[in-house]
What does this fold into?
Amino acid sequence: MNGHDVVVIGAGVAGIQAAMDIANHNIHVWLVEREPTIGGHMGMLDKTFPTNDCSMCILSPKMAEVGRHPNITLLTLSEVEKIEGTAGDFTVTVTKYPRYIREADCTGCGDCVNICPVEVYNKFDAGLGVRKAIYKPHAQVVPNWVVKDNLHCIECGLCYDVCGKNAVLHIDEDRVQTLTIPAAAVVIATGYTLFDAQKKGQFGYLRYPDVITSIEFERMINAGGPTFGEVRRLSTGETPKSVVFVQCVGSRDISVGRNLCSCVCCMYALKNSMLIKEHYPDTEVTILYNDLRAYGKGYEEYAERAKQMGVNIIRAFPGEVQQAKDKLVLPLEDTETGEFKNLEADLVVLSVGMEPEPDTVRLAKSLGLPLDAHNFLSPADMKLDPAGTIRPGIYIAGAAVAPKDIPDSVISGGAAAMKATIDSYASEAKQ
It folds into this structure.
């Protein structure tokens, strides 16, 4: 530990990229992540657009490299409480919450998971799947340790008995720790959260079981998800014969105070609609959109490919979703033809937008960093210094700055990393 280390807050794809770039310049990095594993939202996805490459095939090598990099110290189940000081001389206070596992001894074998009798909803599966009270969020976690959830643990003792390494700890054997890290620079890459679809009550989310969000659909169609890649109606378990994607749920909507575009929703709906057509060619798939925003390299061709596969793309915004026998009915006006119709669907997928993480807002306010109208972090200069802030030595990256897709998040993480690297070298030169 020394004064020219760098602290990266958030270990999604932007934070991972920033940490790797800095560490490869022979600078020690503290990578702080509040979840039990690194990877962020990208690890929950099935495929990525516009290539339809496997998401974890891209992310897992990066996660593994971070996990074994000699210049990176991973702090999972950890949160930054405060940052004090100035550029080149920061003091970062981190709270590390107990895992109730002796990390040095845990091999991640999963014997304790298999024997645990308690099942609760799995946050990583967006609530569609279940996990045990002692668990790994998914099979490719980094670091490869289990975590014990003492909120739901019934202290049956089976995990203590089955662990050959005696790595499972009792409640009184692990405590909250506070770490104080001197650092030359800090990168904030705390990502995003998703819009709460319940705020758009007309769509019936959580009222009708066959109305789900896009992240729930991502877990459903993922081969590593709770249904092993099979798309199912939650009401009956049957394969839906018609699926409707509703765009701009929590984006471009003044009524809920979200008049910004979330950047990725059009493209991930196109991607998921194509995945349905590949898996179930006879399923009717419709996308209801306001404006189709396929702006990136190869994106417009991607949209055309979806149309050629038989995806119906209608410029319309539905009214109140209603249940009619075993179907969902979406009343709408096709704004290109002026036609009114009632669209029937077995499954409705709400394309929810990105929102800032509440903890990012808390941290920004404590640091005196400005936020934009939607509470995303504001750069010092959007054109000339998109990774910088008004506080020298503190840099921002990824979807904490604005809604971004994966390539833009990686680029953003790299830009912040180079800024932090310069500060670290300058701090070292002064010592």
The two ends are 14 Å apart (CA to CA). The first strand starts at residue 6 and ends at 9.
